[in-house]
């Protein structure tokens, strides 16, 4: 499976915008990429308030949002896209103290 570049860009932009909104004007955001022969891992870390472990499943429910103008579909759509393409999506605690949202995606293979 392979995620088209435009979908990947939109997903990454959405994660960065979410972090920027959570951290405010003085916040820090750290985007990390790593990989091996099989997968690529992208993390967006921030120093915002984070997402408590007991809320991590809730923020992935359709139409659940904490933003006044949010749709409640952003993180859900990214998780769905990752899973459809053989990857995974998760939320953890950031090394910066806030939230870490990550995507693990299979590498594109020549001939596939």
- Percent of sequence in beta strands: 25-35%
Structural classification = alpha+beta
Level of helix content?
A: 25-40%
- What series of H and E elements makes up the topology? HEEHEE
Tell me the number of helical segments per DSSP (H or I, 4 or more residues long).
2
Describe the structure.
This protein is α+β, with helices and mostly antiparallel strands. 27% of the residues lie in helices and 26% in strands. A four-stranded antiparallel beta sheet has the order 1-2-4-3. β1 and β2 form a beta hairpin. α1 packs antiparallel against α2. The mean pLDDT is 83.
Task: Explain briefly what this protein structure is.
The chain has 112 residues and is of the alpha+beta class.
Write the SSE topology.
Blueprint: H1 5-23, E1 29-35, E2 39-46, H2 74-84, E3 88-93, E4 99-106
Antiparallel strand pairs: 1-2, 2-4, 3-4
Task: Give short descriptive properties of this protein.
4-stranded antiparallel sheet, globular, 2 helices, 27% helix, single chain, 26% strand, 112 residues, alpha+beta
